[in-house]
Specification:
- The chain has 162 residues and is of the alpha+beta class.
- It contains 3 helices and 6 strands, in the order βββαβββαα.
- Helices cover 28% and strands 21% of the residues.
- A 3-stranded antiparallel beta sheet has the order 1-2-3. It has a 3-stranded antiparallel beta sheet with strand order 4-5-6, with no helix packed on it.
- α2 runs antiparallel to α3 (133-144).
- The longest helix has 19 residues, at 47-65.
- The protein starts with 18 loop residues before the first strand and ends in an 18-residue tail after the last helix.
C-alpha cells in the first residue's frame, strides 16, 4: 500500500498526453494517471476534490475556448438552425454553432390535426421527462396552451398539463 504524502508539484501536459483513471478497492479515491508508463504522474483524489477539479476545469475550459475580440470582450457565437418541416411528417432540425453542426435534442410542440389526446399526452410526457430543467420550463409554457390545440381529438376538457 502507498503511504499518503502532501507535496507540491508542477505538471505540464501537451496535446496527446494519455490520461486514464483507477478507482481504489474501497471506492474512496480516484487515481488519475497522466502520461505513458515510462513517465507517468499519478494523483489520487477523493470525490469532493475530484468534483471541484471537474467544476473548475469546465469553467476554465469554457474561458479558454470562448472567442474574444481584440479588447478581450466575448464574441457571441453564431448559431444557425436549418428547419425542414413536412406538414404531414416529422420536422428535421440541424443546428450549427460557428459553422459546426452540433447534435441536438428536438422537442417539437405541434398540436395540429391528427393527434388523439392519449397520443398527445404520451408524447408530451416523454418530452418533459427527457428535457433539461431549462428546456423543461419552456416546454411547460408551450404545453400549457399549445396553438392548434383545438384540433386534438378526444381531449374532452382535460387540462393540458397534469
Amino acid at each position: 500500500m502507498f503511504e499518503r504524502l502532501t507535496i507540491g508539484a508542477w505538471v505540464i501536459t501537451t496535446p496527446g498526453c494519455s490520461v486514464r483513471y483507477v478507482i481504489d478497492e474501497g471506492g474512496q479515491f480516484t487515481t488519475l494517471i497522466l502520461g505513458d508508463t515510462q513517465r507517468e504522474f499519478e494523483i489520487s483524489l477523493d470525490a469532493a476534490t475530484l468534483t471541484e477539479i471537474v467544476t473548475q476545469g469546465l469553467a476554465s475550459l469554457s474561458e479558454m475556448t470562448t472567442p474574444r475580440n481584440a479588447e478581450g470582450g466575448l464574441i457571441e457565437p453564431n448559431v444557425e438552425a436549418v428547419i425542414v418541416r413536412n406538414p404531414d411528417g416529422p420536422t428535421k432540425v440541424r443546428v450549427f454553432i460557428n459553422g459546426i453542426e452540433t447534435p441536438i435534442t428536438d422537442f417539437t410542440v405541434d398540436a395540429g390535426a391528427g393527434w388523439t389526446w392519449d397520443d398527445w399526452a404520451s408524447a408530451r410526457d416523454v418530452n418533459l421527462a427527457a428535457a433539461s430543467p431549462t428546456a423543461r420550463e419552456r416546454l411547460l409554457a408551450a404545453y400549457a396552451d399549445p396553438p392548434g390545440g383545438e384540433f386534438i381529438t378526444d381531449r374532452e376538457g382535460t387540462a393540458w398539463l397534469k
